[in-house]
Amino acid sequence: MIRPDVRWAFARYRAIDHHLPRAEGFPKAPEILPDLGAIVERYEGFILDAFGVLNVGGTVIATAVERIAQIRAAGKRLVVLTNGASQPREVALAKYHRWGFDFTADEVIASRDLAAAHLAAHPLTQGGVWAAIGPKGAPLADLPGDVRAIDDDLLRAADGFLFLGSEGWTEARQAALVAALQERPRPVICANPDVIAPRETGFTWEPGHYAADLPAPVTFFGKPFGGALQAALTRLDLPAARAVMVGDSLHTDILGGRAAGCGTALVAGHGFFAGHDPMPFIRATGLVPDVIASVT
Fold first, then answer.
1. What was the pLDDT predicted at 197?
2. Among 80, 139, 86, which Cα is nearest to 109's?
3. Please, which pLDDT band fits residue 7 given cuts at 50, 70 and 90?
4. Checking phi first, is residue 10 left (phi over 0); if not, alpha (psi -120 to 50) or beta?
5. CB 80 within 8 A of CB 103
């Protein structure tokens, strides 16, 4: 499979934007800043993406640790809103602590948790079996109901599918899932709408890329969908206009933040746009952030 670059990934987002929410009220042009320090006093609450803002793959962004300390010192509120769903939230929290962040459990919201809440209320969860797509051996005990790692038998037998991560997912397995859903349509919950994720050596395809092409009703949890942003605003206990969504992607962070009524800040030096001028992409979509910062 082709390894995505910025233009390829951007084109993929454009191709599936019929799945995404709509937003209006974008500014005519973004304010360009060297880093996010200048906006700390503008907002009472900060909703922070993880990949591309706090870290790139397994590497922490050093300025992010400093910026969190600045936000704390200014007495502002913050929450990390991550689309990472492969592992329980506690695993992500421990990772952040190893990197030097001081986030509390209440300051991290994972799309996995949002999907789990939906799963708990889903009628199929009472007596049904969900087949989970994610890294081999990843824990599933935190999820409600009977959730089992997908295998060939579950392609036919499962009552629904839960897409948590795409590590190890192949074109052949995707084709088998498509065929199984064509034979017997069943619901799909996608707990990570990201199409790609920035890593140290480039991008990897993520669950949103695969879920968008499935021949079944797919329910997405995570940015840019409203439930994720509303969960973050509820956690901050602030109206949307007093919070800013900080991220590295136009189609998840900036679109989701604007649709929720938040301010938006694009970090362009890490993650999606690292090494690229984001302005041509912004002009092509009309997804204009309030601020573009080179680094966190």
1. 84
2. 80
3. confident
4. alpha
5. yes
pLDDT of residue 1: 56
> What's the token pair of residue 156?
């036919």
| DSSP H or E stretch at residue 210 | helix 207-211
Contacts of 206 (CB under 8 A, 6+ apart): 83, 165, 166, 192, 194, 195, 196, 197
State pTM to two decimals: 0.94
Identify which of 296, 280, 292 has the alpha carbon closest to the alpha carbon of residue 10: 280
Residue type, 237: D
> DSSP alpha helices (H): ranges in 99-196?
111-121, 152-157, 171-183
Q: Each residue of 110-135: pLDDT tens digit? A: 999 999 999 999 999 999 999 999 99
Beta-carbon count within 10 A of 206 CB? 27
N-to-C CA span, the chain? 32
Q: Which is it for the CA torsion 52, 54, 60, 66, positive or negative?
A: positive
DSSP 8-state class, residue 144: S
Within 13 Å of residue 170, how many CA atoms lie on the same side as its CB?
5
Q: How far apart are CA 265 and CA 246, in angstroms?
A: 5
Residues 6+ apart with CB under 8 A from 29: 288
* Backbone torsions φ then ψ of 213, nearest 5 degrees: -105, 5
292 DSSP β-pair partners: 32, 266
pLDDT tier at 224, thresholds 50, 70, 90: very high
Residue 271: left if φ>0, alpha if ψ -120 to 50, beta else—which one?
Answer: left
* Biggest CA pair distance of the chain: 57
